[in-house]
UniProtKB/TrEMBL annotation:
Belongs to the alpha-carbonic anhydrase family. It comes from the Bacteria. It comes from Altererythrobacter arenosus. The lineage of its organism: Bacteria, Pseudomonadati, Pseudomonadota, Alphaproteobacteria, Sphingomonadales. SMART domains: Carb_anhydrase. PANTHER family: CARBONIC ANHYDRASE. This is carbonic anhydrase. It is an enzyme of class 4 (lyase).
């Protein structure tokens, strides 16, 4: 019996898949997730003072943030796993914000939206994740409400039925508003390890997706919004009216 137990332990330790298993979960989006209690590597998730998401209705300043993208037609690869639905992009698309040049890496989704506006969360959000050449992160969030079908989300929905790793083509510009007026603040990744120093941008204009598209994403993801984090002393700039 002892010999068998050792064998079992050895084979578990050797299984490389275990290393990739995630050890944290989204909660209900209301109660604090307390991810630091799961893994001490996630200490900043609970101790950090610059965490995301926040309620954007707390903005006390307005300002013109100059943001532009060159998003367009592109290939992509779908990455789906537990509480994750993402499209990885090849190099070439970017976002300019102020004097910073961010390269687009991937877009992923949450249901419902993570950021709220005066307590209201939208049923779906797209997070476009970018990094500068030096590794500084910049995210553009775009919220969706129920309405007309979105063609790019349609392409992702089709890929979803083909499963993880499937290739797709879409026009990424179809997932962002023509008018990129944004809320802007410094925050964090909304998933462990909750690293801070993320340049957050959230589009003021809410886009439309069909009820079926939202249901397909919510069905794949489940509840995937982190609880709202305190804004504290941070500057949160709302777009000029
Ligand atoms: Zn996200």
């Amino acid at each position: 019996m002892k010999y068998l137990a050792i064998l079992a332990t050895a084979s578990l330790a050797a299984a490389p898949a275990l290393a990739a298993d995630k050890d944290w979960k989204f909660g209900d989006g209301q109660m604090p997730e307390r991810w630091s209690t799961v893994n001490s590597d996630y200490a900043i998730c609970d101790a950090g003072l610059m965490q995301s998401p926040v309620d954007l209705g707390q903005a006390k300043a307005r300002g013109e943030i100059t943001v532009s993208t060159n998003y367009g037609e592109t290939g992509g690869t779908l990455a789906v796993s537990d509480q994750k639905l993402q499209v990885d992009f090849p190099a070439g698309m970017h976002m300019h914000s102020g004097d910073k040049h961010f390269n687009l890496i991937q877009v992923h989704f949450h249901t419902p939206s993570e950021h709220a506006i005066n307590g209201k969360r939208y049923p779906l959000v797209a997070h476009f994740v970018h990094a500068t050449d030096k590794g500084e992160l910049g995210v553009l969030g775009v919220m969706f409400e129920e309405g007309d079908a979105n063609p790019a989300l349609g392409a992702i929905g089709n890929a979803l039925s083909s499963g993880n790793g499937s290739a797709l083509n879409l026009d990424a510009s179809e997932m962002i508003p023509d008018d990129l007026s944004v809320y802007r603040y410094m925050g964090s990744l909304t998933t462990p390890p909750c690293s801070e120093g993320v340049n957050w941008h959230v589009a003021e204009e809410v886009m439309e997706a069909s009820a079926e598209q939202i249901a397909a994403m919510a069905g794949s993801l489940g509840p995937t919004a982190r609880s709202l984090q305190p804004l504290g002393n941070r500057l949160l700039v709302a777009p000029v009216e």
